[in-house]
Amino acid sequence: MSETVVVTGGAGYIGAPLCEELLASGRKVRALDVLLHGQDDIAADLQAKGVELVQGDIRDHDVRRRAVQGADAVVHLAAIVGDPACARDPELSNDVNLEGTRGMIADADAAGVSRFIFASTCSNYGRMADPTEPITEEGELAPVSLYAEQKVGMERLLLDGDTGDLQPTCLRFSTIYGVAPRMRFDLTVNEFTRDLWADRELEVFGEQFWRPYVHVRDAGRAVRTVLDTAPEIVTREVFNVGRSGENYRKADLVQEIDRQVGRGKVTFVTKNEDPRDYKVSFDKIKRVLGFETTMTVPDGIGEVIAGLDAGAFGDPFDGKYRNIS
């Protein structure tokens, strides 16, 4: 009998490609999703491919309990994602990102689930004292947003707290980009590419600040790699997810997009509302798990441009492509 994996947020930006990745690996996949962004068509497509759908809210104990029944592993992606969404409604984000996660951990353990993979973020590194020196998983965590603070708190619970018999692994994802069924245009690479493709004026702040980036499907491959690895190697471990050569400044992104689209206007402005500046090392995930990304940011930019040229997204400025409208 094949392994059953529950993916919370399974119809989301990372979740849908991940469900497809896990299906391709021969696993049974159950997606738990409230379909907050109207992804009924994505959910239906996943079901047609063989994914079992549990539609509901991770804050609901009965929904969680139904989702984890008989499961071997949980991949916990569901969250109010990103600094702007969390800042707009802190109470909701605490309910979902903290209480919902605590409930998911408790219910998974009570159901006898063994593996628990928690989607965290490289934003946990915040503003580094020296962003030119790539930070490892052992580096200081300095979150500068509510979203990152919540992720740090849940990491600590999983790594140091009482989680029963669960075998947790924390994955700190780089900033995600690329084309996926539940497309997002409120992420840096995708947004910048769309705006310049549309010949709009793009305002960029913090153009010299460093961030790492990873393609949405590579993020899913990283989760599968952890599940394919013996538990004793990954339990209570943290892995940065990305590639060491894929740290970029916003100025670098703009330059590459301009090279590929050749239109639009960029204005560099000064703002102090997002001080994150971090360059990240991904040596551990390569060394321990043999994981390497398949896509680079220039590849992803080309992919988004091709989708825009083909009209794949309808109106790419539609509010459905943002986590907050």
UniProtKB/TrEMBL annotation:
InterPro entries to which the protein is assigned, alphabetical: Epimerase_deHydtase (IPR001509), Lipid_A_modif_metabolic_enz (IPR050177), NAD(P)-bd_dom_sf (IPR036291)
Xref: Pfam families: Epimerase
All residue ranges annotated as the NAD-dependent epimerase/dehydratase domain in the record: 5-242
Superkingdom of source: Bacteria
UniProt cross-references to PANTHER family, sorted A to Z: BIFUNCTIONAL POLYMYXIN RESISTANCE PROTEIN ARNA (PTHR43245), NAD(P)-BINDING DOMAIN-CONTAINING PROTEIN (PTHR43245:SF23)
Protein name listed in UniProt: NAD(P)-dependent oxidoreductase
Record organism: Svornostia abyssi
